[in-house]
Design goal:
The chain is mainly alpha-helical and 261 residues long. 69% of the residues lie in helices and 0% in strands. The chain folds into 2 domains: 91 residues, no CATH class; 157 residues.
Length: 261
């Protein structure tokens, strides 16, 4: 039995297309083919409307290795060109997904996975998935990412916090525990940078209140565009990566339970 299908991100979708491409080439070369794995991977891809539209019809209508091999065998092309045919047919989906993934997103995903490969990473993936098609939801999740991460770090440092405090206060408590408070530094450049981080978090809260789906709005409510969501998600991701890298650096320097407070 295959596991439940996860909520797909562009990175997952790209990996899945690449996996299917590899499986098809192995199949044509006479290797073993896992029908169950193929069906599971294809289900991941067809859950996303755009990738479903970009995948070739023959792949969508083939349910196992036998039907796929029969399709390749029926092509009116030389046998040695089937590999190129497979690559060409899957290329539209691959190129589309590559265009949706930035190096910055990948770096953030790696940083978050190195800290917590489940809950925090799941929030980040949800933010990425929503920023184009659901800007209001993306802004809400971007704010949640910072809130959840601050709580995780404070929990790891055994520092108590008020569950109901607003995001700026929660961030300030987390920042001070990591020696990131502007008042904890004397060099003006550091004070300005760290003060800017505080402003970003405060802005995240304000943007969420004004443009997200977290609160109801009247007829005059401004609807966020994808660019607004991208701004919120990118800022949240950068802040999250900075907090994680700082937390890990502090741990390497000996910040532990005994001197965390």
């Amino acid at each position: 039995m295959t596991p439940d299908i996860p909520y797909s991100s562009e990175e997952l979708l790209l990996d899945t297309v690449a996996e299917i491409k590899s499986m098809l080439i192995i199949l044509w070369n006479g290797g073993s083919f896992d029908d169950e794995r193929y069906q599971y991977s294809k289900r991941i891809l067809i859950q996303n409307q755009k990738t479903r539209e970009l995948l070739p019809l023959w792949l969508l209508s083939s349910f196992d290795g036998s039907s796929l091999y029969a399709h390749f065998d029926s092509l009116d092309i030389p046998i040695n060109q089937v590999h190129s045919y497979i690559a060409r047919e899957l290329d539209p989906a691959i190129q589309y997904l590559l265009s949706k993934i930035t190096i910055h997103d990948i770096e953030i995903s790696g940083a978050l996975s190195s800290y917590d490969n489940h809950s925090i990473s799941a929030v980040w993936k949800k933010a990425l998935e929503r920023k184009n098609d659901d800007p209001e939801g993306a802004i809400t999740v971007a704010r949640t990412l910072i809130e959840e991460l601050c709580k995780h770090i404070l929990d790891d440092l055994k520092i108590e916090y008020d569950e109901k405090c607003d995001l700026p206060k929660l961030y300030n408590q987390c920042a001070k525990s990591l020696n990131l408070g502007p008042s904890q530094h004397t060099e003006q450049q550091f004070k300005q940078i760290l003060g800017g981080c505080q402003s970003v978090v405060e802005g995240m809260g304000s943007l969420r209140n004004k443009l997200s789906d977290a609160h109801g709005g009247g007829r005059k409510r401004v609807k966020p565009a994808p660019r607004h969501a991208a701004l919120a998600v990118n800022l949240a991701g950068s802040m999250a990566m900075f907090l994680i890298e700082t937390f890990q650096a502090r741990k390497d320097e000996g910040l532990g339970e005994s001197n965390a407070a």
